[in-house]
Design goal:
single chain; mainly alpha; Receptor-associated Protein; 2 domains; three-stranded antiparallel β-sheet; 16 helices
Length: 417
């Protein structure tokens, strides 16, 4: 047991400090065959030393260019989820680990994913364990993933654990997709509304302004206000949009650096009408799904809770889970430790209490996760149905106000005539 704990601690230590640079390399294996891949290290010399240790003679090592404009990594969480399912399927069918990596790696549609998997395969062939090899790529395999794989290797049930990991990643990515769907639709419509309004104010209103200048009559107050707004947009549109962009950039950067701001925003997001309940249910679903997966894999409850804390997706829940972990470590039951936090609903507490009493905590947590994932799905569908008429009213009111403001003087002139 002590060896397992040390191995997990070693894997976690590797994941806490990702290497700064990514290097593409080419070389020759022990048989003289050309091989290539991608490694993370501080310097090219470290990459060459690692390749020689693995039995590869380095021919070319160069630093990988970063994407323009801070582009995101080529390998997505969805790629990792697909790989997990493919590897689980291969191994459950009796295909050896090395052959599974070769088949999955060469058959993947994403070239970056191909390089990653073939690199991991070469590291394993060089004598590194699967856990150790995955720990060298912390950008793609987090501590939770590595802990689960390590538990499977230590217990000799790697194929079963990989199946649980695949199910967990699929459920997690599905839940993330639903949350993004709930957020993206209103946000995209709001952006479109701002752009359309700006185009009308900058290009359309000036045409009416020239027409009104020849009337020689007093314009309605609404029309005057819209024309003044149009003049401001024409003269200072660059300043307005630049300020908005700068404010968003500053907010995102400050949010990344300030824990207090993250905690405040996460707490605020849970209280937003309509959106808040969805985020609460999503956090509960992630908590239950992650804990169920780790507990079923044989990870001790205290260690599992430490990994679960970072998987909830909300600092409010993260702080609560870390306090629960401390209480459980002193001998308190999970249900009682959770009961002191109002963010966990009574139904969830009762299910966990039953699971603890019956010795089926993992299955009970899985049922809780299924319940809240379905709740999120239903809530997102309801939100979409609610947002469509609401967005039409907002857009109609906004555009309609501008149109009415422009036609009021014309109606006034017609009534006078």
């Amino acid at each position: 047991m002590a060896n397992i704990t040390k191995a997990r601690a070693k894997a976690q230590a590797k994941t806490k400090k990702p290497q700064a640079n990514v290097f593409d390399w080419q070389g020759l294996d022990r048989k003289g065959n050309k091989v290539k891949g991608e490694s993370r290290a501080d310097t090219p010399e470290m990459v060459k030393a690692e390749l020689r240790r693995l039995g590869v003679t380095p021919v070319k090592v160069r630093k990988k260019a970063k994407p323009l404009f801070g582009g995101s990594a080529k390998i997505t969480p969805k790629d990792i989820a697909v790989f997990s399912r493919q590897l689980a399927t291969m191994m459950s069918s009796g295909v050896p680990l090395m052959q599974s990596f070769d088949i999955v790696g060469r058959g993947h549609d994403n070239p970056a994913m191909q390089e990653l998997l073939l690199t991991i395969k070469q590291e394993i062939e060089g004598g590194t364990s699967l856990t150790g090899s995955l720990a060298k790529h912390p950008l793609y395999f987090d501590t939770l993933y590595i802990n689960l794989v390590n538990a499977g290797e230590q217990a000799g049930i790697l194929e079963n654990i990989l199946d649980k990991i695949a199910t967990y990643k699929e459920k997690t990515e599905s839940l993330k997709g639903k949350i993004k769907k709930a957020m993206f639709y209103p946000a995209s419509v709001l952006v479109v509304a701002v752009i359309v309004t700006a185009v009308i104010l900058i290009f359309v209103i000036p045409q009416f302004q020239e027409l009104f200048s020849s009337f020689g009559a007093e314009l309605p107050g609404l029309t005057k206000g819209v024309i003044e707004l149009s003049i401001i947009m024409q003269e200072k549109w660059w300043l307005i949009f630049g300020s908005i962009g700068l404010a968003i950039w500053a907010f995102l950067n400050f949010y990344k650096r300030s824990i207090n701001m993250q905690r405040g925003m996460d707490r605020f997001s849970l209280k937003i009408p309509i959106i808040g309940p969805i985020l609460n249910k999503a956090a509960l679903a992630r908590y239950a799904r992650t804990l169920s997966t780790m507990f079923a894999a044989g990870v001790p409850l205290v260690e599992a809770l430490e990994s679960v804390a970072g998987a909830t997706g909300n600092i409010v829940y993260t702080d609560a889970v870390m306090k629960i972990k401390d209480d459980v470590a002193t001998g308190q039951s999970l249900q009682l430790a959770m009961k002191q936090f109002p963010i966990f609903p009574n139904m969830m507490l009762q299910m966990i209490a039953i699971g603890e009493e019956s010795g089926s905590l993992d299955s009970m947590l899985a049922k809780v996760a299924d319940f809240y994932e379905e709740e999120v799905d239903n809530a997102v569908d309801a939100l979409s149905s609610l947002m469509e008429p609401l967005i039409m009213v907002v857009l109609g009111g906004l555009i309609g106000t501008l149109i009415v403001a422009m036609y009021l003087p014309i109606f006034k002139m017609a009534s006078v005539v």
